[in-house]
Specification:
The structure holds two protein chains of two kinds.
Chain A lengths: L22 E9 L4 H9 L15 E7 L1 H6 L4 H4 L4 H5 L5 H7 L21 E7 L4 H9 L6 E3 L3 E2 L19 E2 L18 E2 L20 E2 L18 E2 L5 E10 L1 H11 L4 H12 L33 H5 L27 E6 L2 E6 L16 H6 L5 H9 L4 H5 L12 E2 L2 E3 L5 H5 L7 E8 L3 H13 L29 E3 L7 E3 L6 E11 L2 H9 L2
Parallel strand pairs in A: 6-7
Antiparallel strand pairs in A: 1-3, 1-4, 1-5, 2-3, 8-9, 10-15, 10-18, 11-12, 13-15, 14-15, 16-17
Helix pairs in contact in A: 1-15, 7-8
Chain B lengths: L3 E9 L5 H9 L23 E9 L20 E9 L2 H20 L11 H7 L6 E4 L6 H17 L8 H20 L13 H42 L9 H8 L7 E9 L4 H20 L12 E9 L4 E9 L2 H20 L8 E2 L3 E2 L4 H11 L5 E4 L6 H12 L8 H9 L2
Antiparallel strand pairs in B: 1-3, 2-3, 2-10, 4-6, 5-7, 6-7, 8-9
The chains are: A alpha+beta, B alpha+beta.
Chain lengths: ~550, ~425
């Protein structure tokens, strides 16, 4: 198969976070009634930045994404729209079940959002990136002529907080690493170990995902304008409108910084060290980003050596958002034949310094579960040798007969639930002293992430792992930072956070308020460049 | 030990009365699809032995799928199914039900075509019981009462236990003993209860051990025959696997919303799915054998907290209807639907394939175990399309998942002051 990746057709955001462009601005646009043609013509001329390497790095960038409502307003037909995922077509709001699952309830209910519903549901999202002081000019240049076809909603500005999120933690350390070289084997197979490397199809439509399959997306007859679109890899006689595109999830998350630090200060009785320690156990990293479990670099770790959560509580934010487990709980100390030679090296995770930061990569032989071969030993002897007998051990774990493995099997396999995060902070940064003094600020995170399957990736992580109150078998608690604190149906509270300790019952923080609330959001499609041209010209 | 039994009553809905029945059933609910425990028709909350119960109208919108085989759409009735899981024999529960809720049940079942004013309810229920092909109970012997008592124990101890770090393991042992003493005092004061376990009924034991040997024995007897014909059977299976049409279109959006409206109020959800069995003798025999095997596995191998790797299913059942033309699958599971499907695909796809690849349209399998449910999106569309909205659903212990129940059980088991290894004493404290 042709394994090429058309970087020139992919929007840059999939490959780069544009970290060197410190200024970012998100513009939400709505197509004016009866102005569809003007809107389309304007979109068609936008200088959208591609994922091609540029040297020197670009001084500014522009990315474009559209909601389903937006595509409809631009005149894209229902036959094409129905090819997109159900979640994208339905949108983030309008289905109470979705709101319940995502924790968009109470103060975070869509009815209270600043944008994202009814007349404030954006059609088009423009993401502008520029170097300091370059934004105003860039914005003027981009928006020239926009008013003919678009109504522009209040813009969403961002603030450069120097790599920290508003609570004060270094953010954005852990990211999946899309397999741009397409070296990861495209085959449905069990993988025992955690790795940051993800099949391209987890983030880009039109490429194989972790199941070795192509995620559904609109496939068209390659006639007329559609002939310009790339062909589908899996259905060669179809034009692939999804290829090189991704779904972009956007949520404006307001962070109550004063509430956060004041709460912790009360719990710590004013003890500054303890206050910081509480905050750090809630996150799972130190303020400077160092993980609480032993790690090679900032990102070379998993939780196999801390199953009880004694170092990093099971409910810690980074452990929930990325549990770093494999498809099957570990059994014998050596997951594959070859690892015996590696002796006590920890569990198939090896950190490698990569240009874009520390990253976990799989050791070649441990990344997949190798079915055992007795290798010279008699089969029977091999079956009887404790722990050498991998087939039996594997069978035991697969059938759930290994009680120890079962205890480690309460969390879904990580590799099917990864998100490429592209968020930016907004609002006036608050110092710790200001926060403790109760100074409120409209600050938070414009959470942006990319994924190919909204239900399996973003919605799953948000609902099962972050909002879920039984993550890893925990006792009625949701994410310490993001949790919605909705009581159980029998009235039991879910507003505590437990920190297991080696001697004694778990320590607990009780009565956690909701620290992060949702102010707006929508599901967007971030099309490939040819697809964008097709959508705004041909349909 | 008190074993759990399923009950399963199926009646045919009288033509033209389905909508009225839907409305009536809906009147039992507080939240959408969630029965009020004290509803006027069937006050489920009054029955101490009842774990789960549901009313489902089995109107299958996918009957036309058989046309992928070039066969005409079958004329099959719409059923009303009433089923659930109880401690102790189903017959005694149904008798109690008739005593306590006769009027409500009469009102409901009067929408069935053979239920008139003169019908005797108890007899009608008995006559309309259907055998359950395979039945799964997460932990055989755990009663509703035990679940509630152990939850009360957990709450009491969790509120009581000091949460400061202890200096030594000796302190942990001491603390554990204090807590054991405290719970004994609570029992004496009547604030906690531990009901003594009932003796295991001998009929159940006999049946259980007969079942233990019967299925392997049948397997042993059939083995020479199967071995002899295995080339033929394998070729037959492979040919079917290659030619059976796949039919997994995306479910209708409105239908999806109907299903989702009923979900995620509690930490546990219900699932009911219904569909046609593939035509032909081979699939029919294979499915019969597999369902029997699943039932045996559920009784003998998976009666203690897990169905293979899945630990989130409270109860599940597979039921044949219409002379094995159709199969109903129903379960009660913890967490959201997407997480449930994730478990299905990533932990037990092989098991799903074994059974459901005999259903019309299932994603293509290889060697009966491979692919199939691993074809993620096709599988997800398939199962949602075959799911039916559960009109009324009752759970006896809202707010409790299996992980809670399991932990509470361990807390109760560990209520002992006997000398024990340090790690055990510490592990027990961490459960609180």
């Amino acid at each position: 198969m042709n394994k090429s990746v058309e970087l020139e057709d992919i929007q840059g955001l999939v490959r780069f976070a544009y970290g060197h462009l410190k200024q970012a601005c998100f513009l939400l646009l709505r197509v004016k009634e009866q102005k569809q043609d003007a809107a389309r013509a304007w979109l068609a001329q936008l200088p959208v930045t591609s994922a091609v390497d540029a040297s020197p790095a670009p001084a500014r960038a522009l990315q474009v994404a559209l909601t389903c409502e937006g595509l409809r307003a631009l005149g894209v037909g229902d036959d094409i729209l129905q090819g997109f995922s159900v979640e994208f077509v339905a949108g983030m709001v309008g289905d109470e079940n979705r709101s319940r699952r995502l924790g968009d309830v109470g103060d975070s209910a869509p009815a209270r959002w600043q944008w994202g519903t009814a007349q404030k549901l954006p059609h088009v999202l423009l993401m502008l990136y520029a170097q300091p002081d370059g934004m105003e000019a860039w914005k003027r240049q981009v928006l020239k002529g926009a008013a003919a076809g678009f109504q522009i909603l209040p813009e969403l500005d961002t603030t450069d907080m120097d790599g920290r999120e508003p609570f004060g933690f270094v953010d954005g350390i852990s990211q999946p690493k899309p397999d741009w070289q397409r070296q990861r084997e495209v085959r449905d197979q069990e993988r025992g170990d955690y790795t940051n490397l993800s099949c391209l199809g987890e983030f880009l439509l039109g490429y194989p995902n972790e199941y070795g399959l192509y995620t559904d997306r609109p496939l068209l007859d390659p006639q007329g304008a559609a002939a310009e679109l790339p062909r589908a890899e899996d259905v060669s006689d179809k034009a692939d409108l999804g290829r090189n595109g991704s779904y972009l999830v956007f949520r404006q998350l307001h962070q109550n910084v004063a509430g956060f630090w004041q709460y912790l200060d009360r719990q710590a009785g004013g003890d500054a060290t303890l206050r910081t320690r509480y905050a750090e156990t809630m996150v799972g990293r130190s303020l400077d980003g160092k993980p609480l479990v032993e790690s090679d670099g900032l990102n070379g770790f998993d939780y196999r050596r801390d199953p009880q959560g004694l170092r990093c509580p099971v409910g810690a934010h980074i452990r929930r958002a990325n549990p770093r487990n494999g498809d099957i709980p570990p059994g014998c100390p050596f997951p594959s034949g070859e690892s015996e030679a590696r002796g006590a090296e920890p569990v198939g995770v090896r950190a490698e310094a990569l240009p874009d930061g520390d990253s976990v990569t799989p050791t070649p032989n441990a990344s997949t579960l190798t079915l055992p071969s007795p290798r010279g030993r008699g089969l029977v002897a091999s079956l009887l040798t404790p722990c050498r007998c991998r087939l039996l051990d594997w069978l035991c774990r697969t059938l759930g007969f290994d009680a120890k493995a079962r205890e480690q099997d309460l969390i879904a396999s990580t590799r099917f639930h990864r998100l490429l995060r592209r968020g930016r902070e907004y609002g006036q940064a608050v110092t710790l002293d200001q926060a403790l003094a109760g100074i409120q600020s409209e600050t938070g995170l414009h959470f942006l992430c990319l994924n190919a399957n909204i239900a399996r990736q973003f919605e799953f992580v948000q609902s099962a792992w972050l909002i879920g109150t039984r993550f890893g078998g925990l006792d009625r608690e949701s994410d310490p930072l993001l949790g919605d604190r909705t009581p159980d149906l029998n009235g039991a509270a879910t507003d505590h956070y437990s920190m297991p300790q080696s001697h004694g019952a778990s320590q607990r923080l009780e009565g956690l308020p909701r620290f992060v609330s949702v102010k707006g959001g929508a599901y967007f499609f971030l099309p490939g460049l040819r697809a964008l041209r097709y959508l705004v010209t041909a349909t | 030990m008190t074993p759990q039994y399923p009950f399963m009553v199926v009646g045919t809905v009288e033509a033209g009365r389905e909508d009225a029945l839907r409305q009536l059933l809906d009147s039992m609910n507080g939240l959408p699809g969630m029965a009020r425990p004290d509803n006027e028709l069937v006050p489920f909350g009054r029955f101490d032995s009842l774990h789960y119960a549901r009313f489902v109208i089995l109107a299958d919108p996918t009957l036309g799928d058989i046309e992928v085989y070039g066969l005409p759409k079958p004329e099959l009735p719409t059923y009303l199914a009433f089923f659930g899981d109880v401690d102790g024999p189903a017959e005694s529960f149904l008798a109690e039900l008739v005593r306590e809720a006769e009027a409500g049940l009469r009102q409901i079942f009067s929408h069935c075509d053979d239920f008139g004013d003169g019908t005797e309810l108890a007899t009608w229920l008995r006559d309309h019981q259907r055998p359950v092909g395979a039945n799964y109970v997460n932990t055989v012997g755990r009663t509703v009462r035990q679940i509630r008592e152990e939850e009360a124990l957990h709450r009491t101890l969790a509120a009581r236990v000091p949460r400061e770090a202890l200096d030594s393991a000796a302190d942990a042992r001491k603390l554990r003993c204090q807590l054991v003493e405290f719970s004994r005092a609570e029992v004496r004061a009547g604030r906690l209860h531990f009901t003594r376990e009932e003796p295991t009924p001998w009929e159940w034991l006999i049946r259980h051990y007969l079942n233990l040997v019967a299925i392997p024995l049948i397997g042993l007897l059939a083995a020479p025959f199967l071995l002899l014909f295995s080339p033929v059977l394998i070729c037959w299976l492979r040919r079917l696997e290659k030619t059976d049409p796949e039919f997994c279109p995306r479910p209708d959006v409105e239908f999806l919303l109907t299903l989702k409206r009923l979900e995620d109020y509690d930490v546990t959800n219900q699932y009911t799915a219904f569909g046609l069995v593939k035509p032909g003798l081979f699939r029919r025999c294979l499915l019969t054998a597999v369902v029997a095997l699943v039932d045996w596995g559920a009784c003998q191998l998976f009666a203690h907290g897990h169905l293979a790797r899945v630990q989130t299913i409270h109860f599940a059942r597979w039921v044949f209807l219409d002379d094995k033309q159709r199969v109903l699958f129903a379960s009660n599971y913890d967490g959201g639907h997407e997480a449930y499907m994730d478990d299905f695909i990533n932990k037990v796809a092989w098991g799903l394939n074994l059974v459901f690849s005999n259903g019309v349209g299932w994603p293509r399998t290889d060697w009966l175990l491979k692919r199939g449910a691993r074809l993620e999106q096709r599988f997800k569309y398939y199962q949602r399309r075959h799911q039916l909205p559960t009109q009324v659903w009752y759970k006896a212990y809202p707010g409790l998942t299996l992980s809670d129940i399991r932990r509470n059980g361990k807390i109760r088991e560990g209520l002992s002051c006997a000398p024990m290894p340090e790690s055990e004493a510490l592990g027990w404290l961490r459960l609180l």
